[in-house]
Amino acid sequence: MAGFTFYYDFGSPSGWLAAEQVVEELGSVPEFVPVSLAGLPAGQVGPFRCEAEIDAHFEDLARRASAHGLLALRRPPVFPADTQRALLAATYARQIGKVVAFSLALLRQVFNAGRDLEDEDTILLAGAAAEIHPAALVKGAALRSTAQRLEAATREAAAAGVLDLPAVAREQEVRYL
User: Fold this and answer.
1) Nearest by Cα to 117 from 29, 41, 16, 42
2) pLDDT for 38-48, tens place per residue?
3) Domain span at 150
4) CATH number where 167 lies
């Protein structure tokens, strides 16, 4: 029987909340697969029409996080943010077997510490938490093969029926978190 796959991008606090809860909900650690939301049919965070909608979204997720005993949710300085650099770093972390630790650390830096996802130092802090050398993370994320792996993972997610993120898939069943 095939295991679960958790598909996510770093641009949404919903992804953070899902990443924090997915292991508890499933009873085991799924395969964490970073994919580009822009490459899926939904293709964007939101859509939010105004700041009030963004604030309401964060307030709702903060209440849900608090109800589950998670760290307080903080809105990062740039939202929505460009996630490409973070996705490439996570794809490299996946190649070396550290994607879960890296991804949780990065999501916590952005949505609990309120750090800027687009700031390379935020990504390097998450790498340090996952015990990835900063030079290796920067070089690994910049490789063409890493970009190709991210593109392939995004295509595979779409082929599995993933339309939006975050999502958990098992065989041909997709559930949105």
Assistant:
1) 16
2) 888 765 555 67
3) 5-176
4) 3.40.30.10
